[in-house]
Amino acid sequence: MKIAKQLLDFYINSSIHVALSVYALSWITLLIFNLPYDENILYFNFYATITGYNFVKYFGIAKWHHRSLARWLKVIQVFSFFSFLLMVFYALKLEANVLFILAGLGIITFLYAIPILPKRIYLDEQQNLRQISGLKVYIIAAVWAFTTVVLPALNNHQELTSKVWITVLQNFVFVLALMIPFEIRDLKFDSIKLATIPQQIGVKKTKILGVLLLLIFLGLNVFKEEIITIYLYKEIIMTFILMLFILFSTKYRNTYYTSFWVEALPIFWLILMLL
C-alpha cells in the first residue's frame, strides 16, 4: 500500500494527472468539431502542461533550496526536463499560427511564476501573477480554454467560427467551476490577501456560483448553430457530476478529493464522449 500511495502521489505531484485532463479536453474539442485525432497537438498539450505546471509549482522551491532538494523533487525535475524536450519536439510539428498563440500563453505562464512586474500591483514580495488579488482562477481558466479549444482547432485548419468561440467560453466557465472545490479546499492555506472567491463571498455562495457557472456552461449550447444531441446528453451528465463534487466540497476534504477525483472529471468526460 505504501508503494501504491507513493506512485499515486508522484502521478499527481508530477502533474501527469492534470496533463491528462488537458489532453482529454483537447481531444473532446476534436470530437465536437468532427476533426481527426491529432497526435501532435494532443501530445504537445500533454507535455506542455507537465512542463508549465511543474515550472509554476516548483520554481520557487528549486530556486531557494536547490542544494537540499528532496529526492522526490529531484525526480520531478528530471521528469519535467524530459517532458520539456518532448514538448519542444511536438511544438516543431505544429502550424505556424498555433506557435504564435503559444508564445502568448508561454509569456503568461512565465509571468505566473517569475517576479518581473512592478511591486505595487502585488500582494507580497513574490511579485508574480499568481499573487495579484483575485486573478489566479481567471488566468488558469483562460489558459486552459485557449489551450484546449483554439490550439486544436487552428492546428487542424478549423475556421474560428462563432461555435469555436462559444466552446472557448464554455471551457472557460467549466474550468472555473472545476476549480471551485480547489478554492474551497485551499481556504485553510491561502493568504486572505489572495481574495479567492470563497474568501470574498463565503463557501455557501461560492457553491451557488459553481452551480450557476455549470448552468451557463450548458446554456451556451443554445447559441450554437447546431447541437449534437448525444454530446449534449454527455455534457449534462458531466455537469451533474461536477455539481455534486462542488456541493460536497469542504475545506476539510483530503487532497485526493480535489487533486485526483475532481481533476479526473475531464478524463471521465472524454471516456463518455468515446463510448
TrEMBL record:
The chain crosses the membrane at residues 12-35, 41-60, 72-92, 98-117, 137-154, 166-185, 206-224, 230-248, 255-274. It comes from the Bacteria. Keywords: Membrane, Transmembrane, Transmembrane helix. This is Prenyltransferase. It comes from Mesoflavibacter profundi.
